[in-house]
Amino acid sequence: MQYEVTAPEPTEGMQALDPLVKERKAAEVQAVALKAFGRIAEAWSLTGSEAAALADMSESTWKRAKKPNFAGALGRDQMLRLSALVGLYKSLELYFTAPISTQWVKLANAGPEFDGARPLDAMIAGGLPKILRVRGYVDALRGGL
Questions:
Q1: Residue-by-residue DSSP string for 50-106
Q2: Is 23 exposed, middle or buried (0-12, 13-18, 19+ CB in 10 A)?
Q3: Is 4 helix (H, G, I), strand (E, B) or coil?
Q4: According to the model, what pLDDT value does residue 3 have?
Q5: Residue in 85, 91, 89, 90 with CA at minimum distance from that of residue 131
Q6: What's the CA gap between 64 and 144, in Å, rounded?
Q7: Element at 30 (helix H, strand E)
Q8: What is residue 7's DSSP assignment?
Q9: DSSP line for 114-128
């Protein structure tokens, strides 16, 4: 038996949004990601070294990248990191109240992903795979999985 997969006909609203989504330039998406991560780094009180390590860049590159007209290009891995960190930030905001939501990454954690370490240190040491697992862990805490 063969199945035919067809996409639903777009509604008028979908047609209007479609060009906007397709026309986003990588530089614009990158600028938004860097701005968001800069605000998160500030909210979490990260040092320049910690923020740079989470974003997988040198501290000097991070100093340039957080400025509005950063001309460098981020790699796919770096963009994925920033995306996961934005999601983690949002999950923490939804699950915890202030000030725990902004302090959580710097508090020692006995959870299975951390073994007593701070989530921040675990994510820096484990790179992108650990960042994604921590995001999944917090999503699961709040019932998102």
A1: HHHHHHTS-HHHHHHHTSTT------HHHHHHHHHHHHHHHHHHHHS-TTHHHHGGG
A2: exposed
A3: coil
A4: 47
A5: 85
A6: 35
A7: helix 26-43
A8: P
A9: TTTS-HHHHHHHHHH
Encode the chain (145 residues) as per-residue pLDDT tens digits: 454 544 455 555 555 555 555 566 888 999 999 999 999 999 999 999 999 999 999 999 999 999 988 999 999 999 999 999 999 999 999 999 999 999 999 999 999 999 999 999 999 999 999 999 999 999 999 885 5
User: First and final CA of the chain: distance in angstroms?
Assistant: 33
Structure tokens at 83: 């995306």
CA dist., res. 56 & res. 61, Å (int):
10
Burial class (CB in 10 A: 0-12, 13-18, 19+), 119: buried
